[in-house]
Amino acid sequence: MVKKVFSAVLIEKKRVAEDTYLLKFNSSISISPKPGQFFLVSREVNRTFLKRPISIHYYYADHRHFKLLIRPKGKGTKDIINVKFGEKLEFVGPLGNGFPLVKNKKVALIAGGIGYAPFAFLLRELKNHGNDIDVYYGEKDKKYLVEYWRINGVKYNIFTDNGSFGKKGNPIEYFLQGNYHRIYLCGPEIMYKSYKENFPELLNISYASFERRMACGIGACKGCSIMVNGQFKYVCKDGPVFRMDDVEIL
Amino acid sequence: MNLNIKLKGLNFKNPLLTASGIFSDDHLDFYQKKLPYGGIVLKTFTYEERLGNIGNRLLEIPCGMMNSIGLANPGIKYLDMSLFDKLKAIKIISIAINDIEEIALFKKVLLKNKIKMVELNLSCPNIKEKKVTNDLRKKKELFCEIRRELKGIIIFAKFSYSQVNKSNIKIIESAGFDGITIMNTIPGIEIDIDKKEFYFNNKVAGISGSFLVPMGLERLFYIKNITDLPIMACGGVKNYKDVLKYIFMGAHLVQIGSAVFNDPMLPVKIERNLSSYLRREKINDINELRGILLK
Ligand SMILES: Cc1cc2nc3c(=O)[nH]c(=O)nc-3n(C[C@H](O)[C@H](O)[C@H](O)COP(=O)(O)O)c2cc1C
Ligand code: FES
To answer: Which of A248, A249, B14, B289 is the most buried (most CB within 10 A)?
Structure first.
């Protein structure tokens, strides 16, 4: 869909894990985002100077309702989780390319920490397209684990750094090559780095979502640069999802 | 209510412009064909392609932001105006020319694209090799040559805060330029205390944001005491009040910069609020307000 500026009202807010909030919004206009796309978000009054890029955690096919999953880091994300019921936030989007989908294939999703955020929406779409899905999801500690969306037939492998839940370690250590047709990743860049070192042969079927500070969100300001095939690309417009063999990982 | 501004034979439907480096054709999605600007200033073009700076390029600070883009652009050769063909707004190309030898190519491309107005960027703080020159005396010859070659094209020189002084203004005036844009971002430094490093690879980055308005007004006040050259004011505009303040201080046109990132609809709101202001004040023509505080 064409990107727009719109407001949406907060209709539900839940603390779903340590320091992690699930916010449900009702949009003032009809929206049709794709999994892996994001919004720029800020309050309407007392705004931060720049909006913050937040990926779409879940989207209802009614074109109105959507969810964000946020673990606040700085002022912008704190402002967002502090909205009250009935209060509006301002959104710009949907922005970015999103994850490329496949049909009737075996796929894996690897999430590190709050990198789980865009996967609820992606999971539903992959499932609707008849894919066979394995999820690998790692957190520092069990208290951060988000009550994930259990979909019948999706196999979850859970990891914690301290072993407080699931296997002790991170998803990359335990990841098995398992004949996947496509692998989707979202997490800190350091996780991508270790994936790249461990699975060089899988990079051309692996798609990861990248994060940068943003200003315009639409490719105008040239602020969110990333090296792709030796050239600068822009995470907001050319990404946030890139094929991993193309990208220089920091 | 008239918001029209006439300047050197050009007709701007309102005094609002995009500041250089802020706008792209992707913004047109938001406005659905009805562009709220009287003119657009594109991101600065240089002679050769510039990839832009490595490392961090953006940071929010209280009331503003810092950027270290480094004039990323494809080079003037690749100026593509077809994206803006249908726009009625005046199209202004921001250019940075370092050398007399470069002028010919700029001339060729600007003429081919029927460009009527350029903004010569003298003040980008984000290039490592080329520090901003506060003393423009050394550039006199270059300016005269640019003026001569770009005959028929309106030229504004874009200054930074620190470039505004009597000598520099006189140089611009005597080179035969048509006006001055004030101002570009202010150079600044940010430090990452955990890494004990400069936050920006170039060390120095450009600061923009709402706190620039009082500084811009003061510089404009100073300039207007020295010259009658028309001014495009730029720096910190966040609402119609800031636009009016710059106009009261003598600006013909007002550029909106980084505040658009948070609110792409800002120019729409400003245009509407300017009209309401005129109605409220029973003023028919915004041009009546220009320079009222200088008289
Ligand atoms: C991301 C960014 C990129 C910019 N790029 C340019 C540029 O290419 N050329 C230029 O003359 N000014 C550039 N500027 C400066 C703006 O045009 C403007 O002078 C400055 O931001 C002050 O206005 P503001 O406070 O309204 O943003 C840039 C500013 C920003 C924030
Ligand atoms: S945020 Fe402006 S180019 Fe990506």
So the answer is: B14
Going from N- to C-terminal start, the domains of chain A cover 5-95, 106-207, 210-250
Please state which architecture CATH assigns to domain A106-207. Answer: 3-Layer(aba) Sandwich (3.40)
Does the C-beta of B237 come closer than 6 Å to ligand 1?
yes
User: In this complex, is the C-beta atom of A73 within 8 Å of any C-beta atom belonging to chain B?
Assistant: no
Q: Which ligand is nearest to the CA of B215?
A: 1
Angstrom distance (rounded) from CA B190 to CA B195 = 12
Region B135-149: what's the mean pLDDT? 94
Is the entire prediction scored with pTM above 0.90? yes
Neighbours of B136 (CB within 10 A): 21
CB A179 within 8 A of CB A108: no
End-to-end CA distance of chain A: 31
List the Cα angle B90/B92/B98 in 5-degree steps: 170
Question: In this complex, which of B26, B60, B69 lies closest to A50 when CB atoms are compared?
Answer: B60
Query: How many Å apart are CA A77 and CA A95, to the nearest integer?
Result: 18
The per-residue DSSP string of B62-116 comes to TTEEEE-----B--GGG--GGGGTT--SEEEEEE----GGGHHHHHHHHHHTT--
Give the H/E segment covering residue B267: helix B266-280
Of A50, A212, A232, nearest to B65 by CB-CB distance is: A50
Q: What is the ipTM of this complex?
A: 0.93
For residue A247, give the 3-state DSSP assignment.
strand
Q: Span A183-196, mean pLDDT?
A: 96
DSSP state of B175: H
For B12-35, what is each residue's pLDDT tens digit? 999 999 999 999 988 888 988 689
pLDDT of residue B223: 97
**Domain A5-95, what fold?**
Elongation Factor Tu (Ef-tu); domain 3 (2.40.30)
